[in-house]
Structure formats: C-alpha cells, structure tokens
Amino acid sequence: MAGRKRKMMKLSAASCPEPPHCKVNTSSSSSSSSSSPPIGSMTCEKDIVASREEPSRPESVRLGEDFYQRPCVALAQALLGKVLVRRRADGCELRGRIVETEAYLGGDDKASHSAGGRRTQRNAAMFMKPGTVYVYPIYGVYLCMNVSSQGEGAAVLLRSLEPLQGRPVMRQLRAQARRKAQARPLKDKELCNGPSKLCQALDIPRLFDRRDLAADPEVWLETESGDSGSAGPAIKPPAAETAAAPVVVAASRVGIESHGEWAKKPLRFYLLGNPCVSVVNREAERRTLHGGP
Predict the structure, then answer these.
(1) d(CA 133, CA 145)
(2) Is residue 121 part of a domain?
C-alpha cells in the first residue's frame, strides 16, 4: 500500500503543472483556516477548470516585420484570423483571434485621421514603419487600436476579436470598464466585439501607442501553424484535415457616415458567420456569396 500511495502521488503531481495561465483577482471576507487544502491540490483544480473552459490551442508563431510590409487593404485582409496577444505584468497572457478590421488609407481617404497628409502628435504612429501600434481615444473615455501599414499615413483598425485565452480575466476587465452597476454578465461573443471593447478586454492602454508589434514584449500578433497567411513557411495538415478557408466579406466601414463617398467604400473586412463580428452587413454578404453589384 505504501508503494502504491507513493506512485499515485507522483502521477498526481505530474498531471498538475504550474503555474496556471491567468488568475481572476477576487477578494474574500472569510478568514484563513488551518484545514485549507495544500497549494498543489488548489492549483490542480484551477488547471482542470481552465482546461475545460479553454481547450488547448494549436502551436503558434509570432509574426515578424515582413508580415506587416503590405499595402493597407492587403494588411487589413491578412490580419483576419491572426491572434492578438497581450502579456500583462503578472505574466498572464490574453489572446483573441482577429475577425474584423477596417482599412484607413490616408491621403484622399477623408475618414482617415491622416487625410490629406495631416500629421499631428496624436497620429504620428500612422506614419511610422508598418507594424507600429496606433492607439487613440474616442469620446474622451474609450480607446481604439490600429496597426500601421505601407502607404503614407495608412493604418488598419482592429475592430473585433474572438476570445481564445483568458476569458475570465477579459470578463473582469470589461466589467470594471462598464458603467452600469447591475449590468448582466457578458457572453463570450460580447467580450471583444467592438474596437473599444477589445481594448478593454485585453487591457490595451494608451501608452501602447507607437509600440512595435514585431518586437514588443507586452503585445504582439501570432499565426497558428497551418495558417496560409503567415509570414513564414507553415506546417500544413493533410488535405483531409484542412478546414475550408473562411469567407471574407468586404463591407462599408462603421460610424463614418459624414465622410461622403468614402463612407460607402468597402474597406471593412470580416469573417462570414463569425458570431463575434460587431456589425453584420447582409447586402455585402449577399454580394460576396452570389456576386452582383
């Protein structure tokens, strides 16, 4: 019996790696007790819960500088399906798959912050090398995250993410940012389905403005193995295991109705059928699937 117990203890320890990815900060008014379970068993329980909530992810590769060297529209489309990663100070990593983007071309694009070549202290990141983060405030409260591309003053707005890792922490961050005291709990698809929502959920602060996604230790983009849009060679699964390529919808951008003809240009891109897309355009989807004007 003693030999069996030692063997069982070894197996239990091996199946319970440390540390867990992300912990939600909670407070408790109850006092500590000497009968509390050992730390190892507590960690194991958290790991089991985490594995149930968030299945293991495919192997991923960080995107380098070459990936961002594309014209604005091409980068906006290439970003779909890539994974935004945010590493917080405590080592917790939050991940979300990009499912919706908007291209802002600069120059003649009247909806762009850099329209007509306008360069200010605020939008300086739009004129920096491709892959530079551009974070700006809206309504004096919320933030939006963009990625610079090739082209003078051009950048891509990250509009929606599909949460992949760290959903409990994302939910807590969103709850802290919401103004309604008794607001209902958010569904997974509501955590990052908007440009400011994803900044809240992934804890993207204003000071990330002008950061380099190819080199920064706190925020970067990844591509999962087998992703055909990766910057380098990818390991492709057998044909029988390859999922059908997602359909990309091109639609008009959101919230720029006052900018004339530019408000109607199809410079917003999203993955058809993804529940985390912020605004669905049925007419654009019909044109994508069936053709026509």
Answers:
(1) 7
(2) yes
Over residues 9-56, the pLDDT tens digits come to 343 333 333 334 566 654 433 333 333 333 232 223 333 334 345 556
In this structure, is residue 206 part of a structural domain? yes
Which residues form the domain of 96? 60-233
Q: Does residue 19 belong to any structural domain of this protein? A: no
| 248 dihedral zone (left: phi>0; alpha: psi -120 to 50; beta) | beta
Report how far residue 190's alpha carbon sits from residue 163's, in angstroms, rounded to the nearest whole number. 9
In a domain, 42, yes or no: no
Tell me the CATH number at 161.
3.10.300.10
Residue type, 188: D
37: preceding bond cis by omega (within 30 degrees): no
Tens-place pLDDT, residues 80-109? 999 999 999 999 999 999 999 999 999 999
pLDDT in tens, 203-237: 999 999 999 999 999 999 999 865 645 443 333 34
